[in-house]
Specification:
Keywords: 4Fe-4S, Cytoplasm, Iron, Iron-sulfur, Metal-binding, Methyltransferase, rRNA processing, S-adenosyl-L-methionine, Transferase, tRNA processing. With 373 residues, the chain is an alpha/beta fold. The chain has twelve helices and 14 strands. The radius of gyration is 21 Å and the shape is elongated. The two termini are 24 Å apart. The structure holds iron/sulfur cluster.
Amino acid sequence: MISSSSGSDGLSRKANIFGKARQNIVDIAEALNVPSYRGKQIHEWIYTKGVTTFQDMANLPRSLQQDLDQKYIIDYGRVLDSQLSVDGTRKMLIQYSNDPKASVEAVFIPEDHRGTLCVSSQIGCSLSCRFCHTGTQALYRNLTAPEIVGQYMIAAWMAKDFPKTLNQRPNVSNIVFMGQGEPLYNFRNVSAAVRTLTDKSGIGMAPWRITISTSGVAPLIPRIASELNVGLAVSLHSADNDVRSEIMPINKTYPLSQLMSSCREFVKCASPQSQRITFEYVMLDGVNDTDADANRLVDLIRNLPTHVNLIPFNPWPGSNYRSSDSARVLKFCNLVRSRGIHASVRTPRGDDILAACGQLKSSHDTKKSAATI
Ligand code: SF4
């Protein structure tokens, strides 16, 4: 990733070529003012070999290496902190442009057969979902496409995925836009980032390995399928319109009826591999966890290809909710399954480092307790 006027070294005043160019071969060539075959070479060094200095681009003439090196840097963003959970989950605090307020968290969750990177799309969030720690952090700004892709580049570096080789099984195999922010309120940059992540001449991730999670920005949901061809997760959390409005204020703008109609449209446009919608459902004691709630949920989604992901609430400092107990979560899950809907209970990951679902917040006071790597 080519970056920036204030690079990770904190001293650089080199031009932010990456911030200006879209991250494909043609735009890199134009932005660097080099012939297209050089743009192709540079693009390959960056995205398939993970090279971060022009001097390491062995097939560029020395004079060009030096010229580029004087003008530009390759900067993924600065890792301020990286914490490793006892379960192998890693949370990274990443800062951009040397702006102390411009930092987000990304989380890498390794599993037996895949490794999922949870990326952020905004710094803070404007939506204030009541159960979400990020919702207590005001929106600062949208992330740019390079800043979003940079989270992947950092995680892929840490997971030793570079240089990429043919038929390699990458450690960072999947990406979910489930970190800080509402991705559909930053649709333009999220779309550009998805295009870079799926560009076959570079990172080349299969679109169905990417999932965009939304709190319910209904008008944009069909475009996740028709324009980006990636998967959809919906933070649902209640099938009762009033309860949902109470815990997720966005429901007052896009109520359940409108949300479900957009989900049906998504399914019509989606490729077979990305068609199944994941409905996220955080289990809040006494709020949304009765048998009646489970039946209401099934009635709402039964005609869609779905998976229900039940998430025991992950407490954070100052939160007002308690998680439903494990017997209640299990009964809720079994009830949903008994009516023919795929459902599972998410195993909490990284909760010892506040990296679990709904816990991300990039203020520095949230990152102290676990070992810093
Ligand atoms: S759940 Fe998502 S949309 Fe809601 S406050 Fe948290 S980050 Fe924002």
